[in-house]
Amino acid sequence: MIIKRKNLKSILNEHSVWILSLGKAGKLADFENWKLDKISLEMAYLPFAKLQFVSLRGANLSGANLRQTDLLKGNLIDANLDGADLEGANLSGGDLSFSKCMRTNFADANLEEANFAGANLDETNFTKANLRNCNFKAANLSSSEMIDANIDGANFEGANLEGTNFEGTAIDKANFDETYLRVLNIESTNLPEADHDNANISDSIQNEAKSPEIGLNNHNLDKTILNRRRSTKSSKEDLIVDSNSVNPNMIDEAVIDLIKKVKSSIRMDQVKARCKQQPDIEKIAKVDFEHGDIITHNDQVAFKLDYKISYKLSLLLDRKGNLIMDFPGSIEKP
User: 305 is in which domain, residue-wise?
Assistant: First the structure.
């Protein structure tokens, strides 16, 4: 579907109402199969929106809130996602080649088989993201965070990984041919079996590091990727839409206020009773609220509250190390 200018602002406003009313009013934004090439959605507020198979080629989405959106197999070639928040979003199979994603948040996102060839991903957050079979060929990933990420089968050939943090990430099944890895944080990673015969590993392992501008002479795509990667100029938008008719800061503050109200209505005795339903937990020492968010569940708005539960569990073993099953595990306050 091709976008009609008069409809877009109405859709954005209806979506904001849907979020604020917890689905009781307004309407969830659904752009499945829409053609939104070169559109400006800068700072747009579209968490949970449906954007499967959407075409956003050359679009400006800088600073947009796209948390938990469904962008399955979306076309975001040459799109500007600088500073956008896509935490928990689904971009599996998406094409983000040559995109600009500086300081973009992809934490907990599903990016399986996504294409980031030639993309600028400087200081981008991929913490706990699913990056299985992703293509990062000749991408700029300098100072990015890939903590506890899944990069099985990912291709980093010719990429710039200067200062990239791979802490807690197993890199033994990824391809690092001709990759620039200087100042790479590889603490708690599986390095020895990785495909890195032609890679420059961390300063702590190898003192000499080559320039990141490595030619991949046998591929016509490579020069194009390297040249376009240097460019930070945004594409000109043919269609400009005022997405700031609803103040995103005002919406964020309203969401935070809703979370606080929901939290205050939760009875701790109910939380503890739920915990005691688990085997061997009799007495809860401490309950700490950590984080709250608004999510969708079966196309319905729901609250997700994260708590940290502390307790002490005692186990009784005989002299042979066998667990004595009839011992009532005692739980005491630390």
Answer: 266-310
* CA 285 – CA 281 distance, rounded (Å): 10
92-to-71, 170, 225, 286 alpha-carbon distances in Å: 8, 20, 22, 39
Does the residue 297 lie in any domain?
A: yes
Distances (CA, A) of 299 to 16, 88, 302: 15, 16, 9
Q: Is the pTM of this model over 0.90?
A: no
**Position 106: which residue type?**
F
In a domain, 241, yes or no: no
At position 311, the amino acid (one-letter code) is Y
What's the domain count of the chain?
Answer: 1
Q: What is the pLDDT of residues 197-235, one digit of tens each?
A: 555 444 333 333 333 333 333 344 544 444 444 443 333
Tokens of residue 321, six digits: 């190390």
CA Rg value for the chain: 24
Amino acid at 182: R
Ramachandran assignment for 277, one of left (phi > 0), alpha (psi -120 to 50 degrees), beta (any other)? alpha
Report yes or no: 50 and 33 within 8 Å, Cβ to Cβ: no
DSSP secondary structure string for all residues of 178-228: T-B-TT-B-TT---TTSB-TT-B--TTT-S----S----TT-HHHHHHHHH
Distance, in Å, from the CA atom of 230 to the CA atom of 316, rounded to the nearest integer, reads 63
Q: What's the pLDDT at 236?
A: 37
- Between CA 290 and CA 274 the distance in angstroms is 17
Measure the N-to-C terminal CA separation of the chain; round to a whole number of Å. 60
Gap between the Cα atoms of 237 and 123, Å rounded: 25
Q: 292 in a domain, yes or no?
A: yes
Q: In this structure, which amino acid lies at residue 259?
A: I
Distance CA 183, CA 181 (A): 6
Query: Does any domain span residue 94?
Result: no
